[in-house]
Amino acid sequence: MSTAIDAFDSLLAGRQRILLLSHVNPDGDAIGSQLGLKWLLEAQGRQVIAANQDGVPVLLRADQVAPGWQEMVHNPMKPKRRGNGYDLVIALDCSDLPRLGKAYSPALAATPLVNIDHHITNLHFGAVNIVDPAASSTAELVWRLADALGWPIGPQAAQCLLTGIVTDTRSFRVGHVTPGLLGVAQQLMEAGASLAAVNELVLERRDVDTICLWGHALAELRLEERIIWTAIPQTMRARCNSVEQSDSGLANFMVGAVEADVALILTERADGLVDVGMRAAPGFNVAQVALALGGGGHPRAAGCTLALPLEAASQQVLAALKAALAQQRHAEQRP
Ligand code: 5GP
Ligand code: MN
After folding, report:
1. In this structure, which topology does domain 208-333 adopt according to CATH?
2. Residue to mutate (ligand 1; options 95, 115, 244, 300; most atoms within 8 A of CB)
3. Where in the chain are the domains?
4. For the domain 2-203, what is the CATH superfamily, name and number?
5. Residue 257 to residue 328: CA distance in whole angstroms
6. Does the pLDDT of residue 139 top 70, yes or no?
7. Pairing state of beta strands 113-117 and 88-92?
8. Cα separation of 106 and 104, whole Å?
9. From ligand 2's centre to the CA of 258, what distance in Å?
């Protein structure tokens, strides 16, 4: 880790124009780590563009939780920006390069890339890889970077980083919450960040259309071999006027079922692809199933995207999960 940070420090020296990217359908950690690092690098005198193919999710479009969100661009290669060129690309919260979606242009292939991430399935695709699956969030890794390099953390950077940490740990309830992480959160709050803002404006909020969709999806709930699952076809989304956006709340809710070891949601997208979201109860692991299906994630929260009709995708993922769970239960029983 410290070697990777030293390598990052050397790579950064003399590089002025920096592009920060995060994963498609971004969450609070993607946006928080990206904007947090933007503030930090700007304070170090760099010119920084932050881009995401899908922009900033509605709940994060608030200065109280993601200051600087208005500056996020969709396409970093628009002519006027391409004119500036980039000396360095940094990918945040992405376990593989395709996760960056269209924000990563092939024209960037010759530009050095730094990979900052905490997914256990990370493919180490950067020239420098600051990757630690034990970290709570990518935002925590950005904090470690700033701390190691002695960069001051202003109130805006502090807020963005706290937003990343709080959203990825669901307010210190899951994930790698250590005494050290609580110390980091304390420092960020002392630097001016608000914990209440993230809880109140992001974590526990969703629009009525999403709640409507939860209702329909929950009405179709099935339980098979301790897998609680549901599928969301386009027709269901249309009934609720629900727009496509990230909502991991339903999967988190479902995995709380005492009868289940894993929760699974399959969502049919407008382009016909199927997004797969999985959650595991304590003691179970869905990361390897996601990786085997071309996706990735964490032991207890992972996903992938499949180019199959909804029904076929459901059957494929269920079969893979059943096999993995049988193996995990068997391994647990061995002395
Ligand atoms: P969610 O269910 O909230 O969309 O995703 C849960 C976790 O799985 C997140 O850490 C997310 O980054 C990861 N994940 C979801 N879909 C994909 C995917 O298609 N590819 C990869 N590499 N990771 C994914
Ligand atoms: Mn994350």
Report:
1. Diaminopimelate Epimerase; Chain A, domain 1 (3.10.310)
2. 95
3. 2-203, 208-333
4. inorganic pyrophosphatase (n-terminal core) (3.90.1640.10)
5. 19
6. yes
7. parallel
8. 7
9. 26
